[in-house]
Amino acid sequence: MRDKDCIFCKISAGEIPSNTIYEDEEFRVILDLAPASKGHALIIPKEHAADIYEIEEELAGRAMKLAKRMAVHMTEVLGCEGFNILQNNHEVAGQTVFHFHMHLIPRYRNAKNEDILVWNHETFSPEEMEQIRDALKQD
Ligand code: 5GP
Ligand code: ZN
User: Fold this and answer.
1) Could you tell me if 27 and 45 are in contact, meaning their C-beta atoms sit under 8 angstroms apart?
2) Is 101 labeled as catalytic in the residue annotation?
3) Is residue 63 part of a domain?
4) CB 7 within 8 Å of CB 17
5) 128 in a structural domain
6) Domain housing 90
7) Ligand 2 centroid to residue 118 C-alpha, Å
């Protein structure tokens, strides 16, 4: 399914040009317009789903398999020293384009953006941790 107002539907369909580094029937992988590092790319499924809550489970699995292959390939070509795979859901989590995508972010020592993805820690008491664990525990 496509969303006629969605920019990533248009990009993944090839209606809006992009710097594509990989394409198959289900996915397009493009360079991010505002990269956090050299080679920062996005895996975009061609099927519209807004986020992790909407995307079909099997397709999400295939996106992760592609991320694995792209990470290996990009690391070989770019010579980066590490790699982040990031996927934002909802505005509060930093999502700005509401079509599921995965960020592929090559990491380099001494890069301008060495501290991307560094967060402050929150503290919870042991009792709070147990409550959280019990609430989240699944069989
Ligand atoms: P989000 O913040 O939703 O996780 O990530 C959206 C990403 O898409 C951002 O990193 C942003 O730079 C990138 N982006 C937004 N619009 C375009 C576009 O038209 N073309 C490309 N190549 N990247 C885009
Ligand atoms: Zn879309």
Assistant:
1) yes
2) yes
3) yes
4) no
5) no
6) 7-113
7) 29
Domain contains 134: no
- State the amino acid at position 36 in one-letter form: A
Cα–ligand 1 centroid distance for 79 (angstroms): 24
pLDDT values of the chain reduced to their tens digit, one per residue, 139 residues: 677 899 999 999 999 999 999 999 999 999 999 999 999 999 999 999 999 999 999 999 999 999 999 999 999 999 999 999 999 999 999 999 999 999 999 999 988 877 888 889 999 999 999 999 999 999 8
For ligand 1, whether the C-beta of 88 sits within 6 Å is: yes
Token code pair at residue 46: 């061609």
Does the C-beta of 93 come closer than 6 Å to ligand 1? no
Q: How far does the centroid of ligand 1 lie from the alpha carbon of residue 34, in Å?
A: 7
**Which domain CATH number covers 41?**
3.30.428.10
Total number of domains constituting the chain: 1
Residue 70 contacts residue 86 (beta carbons within 8 Å) = no
